[in-house]
Amino acid sequence: MSLTLTYFPVRGRAEVIRVMLKDQGAEFDEKVITMEMWKESTLKASCLFGQLPILEDGDLTLYQTNAIRRHLARKLGLYGKDQREAALIDMMDEAIQDLLNKYIKLMFEKDDSGKEGYLKALPTDLKPFEKTLSGDKGSFLVGDKISLADYALVILLIHHQVLSPPCLHAFPSLQSYLKRLCARPNLHAYFHSDDFKNRPIIPGKRT
Amino acid sequence: KLLFTTGRCGAMRIMMADQGQEWKEIVVDFADWMKGDLKATCVFGQLPKLEDGGFALYQSNAILRHLGRNHDAYGKDGKEAALIDMMCDGVEDLRLKYVKMIYQEYDTGKDVYIKDLPNHLDKFEAVMAKNKTGFLVGDKPSFADYSLFEVLLNHLVLCSSCLDTFPSLKSFVEKMSARPKIKTFLDSEAYKQLPINGNG
């Protein structure tokens, strides 16, 4: 695969793609587009929905973060062992996207007034994932191998801990899941890298 | 297949109808839902829920993809699958804007929404026109097509002229509506009685 990821110099919506590729040891190039470049160039007009990220995979040019993630997941064997697991992975991923969209909305609010309400509601959103991961149901959200959905959840949990360090205190299975995934050698190396640490979560908000 | 339903089921119903997939529908009354028994059994506390054999699935887009896989409506290869995902995600972005306007901003935001709509529809028009097959990707309907079709039907209710400047989309809606099984479904009492959205 000859992969090129084009995105802004932030984690934003593309970070989950980076995390997946890094963990899998898949090589990829990155094109960084600053806000100035985005405003001044014709790139935006050339993007199907006027948005980043873009993934170029050989002669295939893909837009939409989740389409990119699914494409890579299919190629890298991160979509379950059969159709049933694929459906369950999709289900988990959609729910993670719902929480991610709430999180993004909060991050872009002009002040902190929504934070308290958000954190109060957060346990309700985390509970289904805690339940899924508890007991002896295995180390991942679906099946016995890491999937598309796990990468989305791990980075979302990391960012929620930045937002509120104690947010996982009532969720032992999520804590142990996060610890286990972050101990994967490639992820451990990546999360400790300057590359990851110095990239802001969203524009203007340091980690 | 059993479908417990809400407003986010339009596309999956149309897909199942077109693909000749029989299904049983359980419409959950809002008052019953608020009692909480069913809600507590739903993994994310939400509907729709699809039961396929002994297998329960939630999240409307996960259901759509599952049906897509089962009915060969997910492209002929990895490249088409990726493009279908991309188009479906684009449709979902539009659906989210529509739902937001309907539930939160109908009185104040409806006119602005309709005025801005061409800026979103033109992207689908461009893809449809370029593909030339009458579908978004490849030469047969995918779950992205069913999703787009449903969203466009809803928009035509909102504003009956919204596709007048988009000939490929207009023709797409006409052709999809004329597919025999879809036509039967859209003409049925079951379909006509279902409200589009929860708030009328």
UniProtKB/TrEMBL annotation, chain A:
This protein's UniProt keywords: Cytoplasm, Mitochondrion, Nucleus, Transferase
Domain GST C-terminal: from-to ranges: 82-201
Pfam hit, one: GST_C_3
Enzyme Commission no: 2.5.1.18
Main location: cytoplasm
GO BP field: glutathione metabolic process
GO MF term list: glutathione transferase activity
Catalytic activity: RX + glutathione = an S-substituted glutathione + a halide anion + H(+); prostaglandin J2 + glutathione = prostaglandin J2-S-(R)-glutathione; 11(S)-hydroxy-14(S),15(S)-epoxy-(5Z,8Z,12E)-eicosatrienoate + glutathione = (11S,15S)-dihydroxy-14(R)-S-glutathionyl-(5Z,8Z,12E)-eicosatrienoate; prostaglandin A2 + glutathione = prostaglandin A2-S-(S)-glutathione
Domain GST N-terminal: 1-80
Keyword Flavoprotein tagged: no
Compartment(s): Cytoplasm; Mitochondrion; Nucleus
Gene Ontology cellular component terms for the protein in this record: cytosol; mitochondrion; nucleus
Annotated family: Belongs to the GST superfamily. Pi family.
Function field: Conjugation of reduced glutathione to a wide number of exogenous and endogenous hydrophobic electrophiles. Involved in the formation of glutathione conjugates of both prostaglandin A2 (PGA2) and prostaglandin J2 (PGJ2). Participates in the formation of novel hepoxilin regioisomers. Negatively regulates CDK5 activity via p25/p35 translocation to prevent neurodegeneration.
Name of protein: Glutathione S-transferase
Annotated organism of origin: Oncorhynchus kisutch (Coho salmon)
Gene name, Swiss-Prot/TrEMBL: LOC109906033
TrEMBL record, chain B:
Keywords tagged on the record: Cytoplasm, Mitochondrion, Nucleus, Transferase
Main location: cytoplasm
Keyword Coiled coil: no
Lineage: Eukaryota, Metazoa, Chordata, Craniata, Vertebrata
Recorded GO CC terms: cytosol; mitochondrion; nucleus
Domain GST N-terminal: from-to ranges: 1-75
Domain GST C-terminal: 77-196
PROSITE patterns xref list: GST_CTER, GST_NTER
Domain of life, source organism: Eukaryota
Keyword Acetylation listed: no
One GO MF term attached to the UniProt entry: glutathione transferase activity
Reaction catalyzed: RX + glutathione = an S-substituted glutathione + a halide anion + H(+)
Protein name: Glutathione S-transferase
Signal peptide: none
One GO term (biological process): glutathione metabolic process
Similarity field: Belongs to the GST superfamily. Pi family.
Subunit details: Homodimer.
E.C. number: 2.5.1.18
Subcellular location: Cytoplasm; Mitochondrion; Nucleus
Known function: Conjugation of reduced glutathione to a wide number of exogenous and endogenous hydrophobic electrophiles.
Gene3D superfamilies: 1.20.1050.10, Glutaredoxin
